[in-house]
């Protein structure tokens, strides 16, 4: 008779994979858990890469929550440099390539967890050129760090004006690399409403940062020694010894294609607990969709918060425990130089796409009491249901301390509160940190007035 109550195979050893492993271990202590990781690194915090490259986080180990020795010591069968290359869902078997020995092995499972993450999309123009990198794995971060230290690039181009691209603008600027950001869409950070993308863009450009929107990379040229030399766009040519491509992600699910596992654009379709369309197969993190309770849809939201949550929920689900989980709501934050931005729930643009009856208010206040020195501007926008006043989402922008102000809106959206609830909500106050009327009190009042006025207009 088997020593183990259940035989579990996890593919991928970073955020979702390792969180799932420990969650299963906690809830099913007698299970056998094998973790397959095709790389050499596990359990690292990718979100810290920009600060690691900058040198603020000095040692790679600081980014690692659990190293391989600890994971093995904790009783997991961790197989590094082992790549899952095929799965037979009928026979419940995974074919694995041992990349060190260059040989295959077959593992059977009772439950399979797919936590393979995603890979950075790449442009075709840079193939084989030195000094061009994605930033997705710890290996990528180390390559970039080493290249900056050794080649000492003076000029860089970041391709893509999403979160990662904009964060890296700060990193490279602090490392004294003259950096251009090239974004082919009309604006940066396009998950935010236009006013918010524009607020940040204006501030960054005002400080002299070179961010080019509506500009598409069309080619590149290398030096005789194969090093990056120039990036060509549809508008101009930039000299650059360093290029970072940050143009989006492709879920690592190629090896699962055509096997009956339901996917959308390569991302695995799951329910709230990571269950896939195939029995005993779970998936979560950057390789899968996640349920967004605000849109009521499965959405691709590749974030560390979601990856960790899904790891834990998958573990609980495998153990037969399914806590109340409503789904996520797209909360995200950004910090670049002294600026901070955050969002939760639906933006105006997303509410419009979903065909919802929405309205919104935007409030500009200060982050300190009017009389207190050193205050700076703070912006908050609330998107709400124009009939019921239900808060659908919010966005904030300002300087230090601004992003964390989203958390009150996160809770409001999660709890299904209305703009009326915000009007007199009892926010804390001290002059160096806030005004006697919190900006959310003001936004709640403005939104309530807007609803009231439109009702009056309708009954006239
Ligand atoms: C620079 C950067 C900054 C970020 N900043 C933030 C942030 O501030 N906030 C936030 O919420 N999120 C942030 N994220 C996103 C967050 O880090 C990811 O969402 C999260 O790491 C995804 O975890 P995961 O476990 O799904 O995938 P991954 O971390 O990608 O892990 C998947 C693992 O699976 C392995 N694998 C893949 N295929 C196979 C296979 N066939 N066989 C074996 N192993 C395989 C891969 O080698 C990889 O190690 C950031 C990401 C980056 C890169």
UniProtKB/TrEMBL annotation:
Domain Pyridine nucleotide-disulphide oxidoreductase dimerisation, chain residue ranges per copy: 334-436
InterPro entries: FAD-bd_OxRdtase, FAD/NAD-bd_sf, FAD/NAD-binding_dom, FAD/NAD-linked_Rdtase_dimer_sf, Pyr_nucl-diS_OxRdtase_dimer
Xref: SUPFAM superfamilies: FAD/NAD(P)-binding domain (SSF51905), FAD/NAD-linked reductases, dimerisation (C-terminal) domain (SSF55424)
GO molecular function, one term: oxidoreductase activity
Highest taxon, organism lineage: Bacteria
Organism field: Proteiniclasticum ruminis
Keywords assigned by UniProt, alphabetized: FAD, Flavoprotein, Oxidoreductase, Redox-active center
Coiled coil: none
UniProt cofactor(s): FAD
Keyword hit for Isomerase: no
Similarity comment: family membership: Belongs to the class-III pyridine nucleotide-disulfide oxidoreductase family.
Pfam families: Pyr_redox_2, Pyr_redox_dim
Gene3D superfamilies registered for this protein in UniProt: FAD/NAD(P)-binding domain (3.50.50.60)
Protein name in the entry: NADPH-dependent 2,4-dienoyl-CoA reductase, sulfur reductase
Residue ranges of every copy of the FAD/NAD(P)-binding domain listed in the record: 6-300
């Amino acid at each position: 008779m088997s020593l183990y109550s259940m035989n579990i195979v996890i593919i991928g050893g970073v955020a979702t994979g390792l969180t799932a492993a420990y969650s299963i271990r906690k809830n099913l202590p007698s299970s056998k858990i094998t973790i397959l990781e095709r790389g050499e690194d596990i359990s690292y915090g990718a979100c810290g890469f920009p600060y690691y490259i900058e040198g603020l986080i000095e040692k790679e180990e600081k980014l690692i929550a659990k190293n391989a020795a600890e994971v093995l010591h904790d009783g997991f069968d961790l197989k590094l440099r082992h790549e899952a290359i095929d799965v037979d869902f009928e026979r419940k078997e995974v074919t694995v390539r041992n990349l060190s020995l260059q040989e295959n092995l077959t593992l059977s499972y009772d439950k399979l967890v797919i936590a393979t993450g995603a890979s950075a999309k790449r442009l075709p123009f840079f193939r084989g050129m030195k000094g061009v990198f994605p930033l997705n794995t710890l290996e990528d971060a180390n390559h970039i760090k080493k290249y900056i230290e050794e080649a000492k690039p003076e000029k860089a181009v970041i391709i893509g004006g999403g979160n990662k691209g904009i964060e890296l603008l700060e990193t490279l600027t602090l490392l004294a690399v003259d950096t251009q950001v090239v974004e082919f869409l009309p604006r940066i950070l396009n998950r935010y409403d236009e006013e918010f993308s524009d607020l940040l863009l204006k501030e960054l450009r005002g400080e002299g940062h070179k961010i080019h929107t509506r500009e598409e990379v069309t080619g590149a040229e290398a030096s005789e020694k194969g090093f990056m030399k120039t990036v060509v766009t549809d508008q101009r040519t930039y000299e650059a010894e360093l290029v970072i491509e940050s143009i989006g992600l492709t879920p690592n699910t190629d090896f699962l294609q055509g096997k009956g596992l339901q996917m959308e654009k390569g991302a695995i379709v799951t329910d709230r607990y990571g269950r896939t369309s195939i029995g005993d197969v779970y998936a979560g993190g950057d390789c899968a969709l996640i349920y967004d309770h605000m849109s009521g849809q499965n959405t691709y939201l590749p974030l560390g918060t979601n990856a960790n949550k899904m790891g834990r929920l998958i573990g609980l689900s495998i153990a037969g425990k399914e806590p109340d989980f409503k789904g996520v709501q797209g909360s995200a934050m950004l910090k670049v130089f002294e600026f901070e931005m955050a969002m939760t729930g639906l933006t105006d643009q997303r509410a419009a796409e979903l065909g919802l009856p929405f309205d919104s208010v935007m409030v500009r206040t200060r982050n300190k009491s009017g009389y207190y020195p050193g205050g700076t501007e703070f912006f908050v926008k609330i998107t709400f249901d124009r009939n019921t006043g239900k808060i659908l989402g919010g966005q904030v922008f300002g300087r230090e301390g601004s992003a964390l102000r989203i958390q009150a809106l996160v809770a409001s959206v999660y709890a299904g509160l209305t703009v009326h609830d915000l009007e007199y909500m009892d926010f804390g106050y001290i002059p160096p940190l806030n005004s006697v009327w919190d900006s959310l009190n003001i936004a709640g009042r403005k939104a309530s007035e807007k609803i009231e006025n439109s009702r009056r207009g309708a009954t006239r």
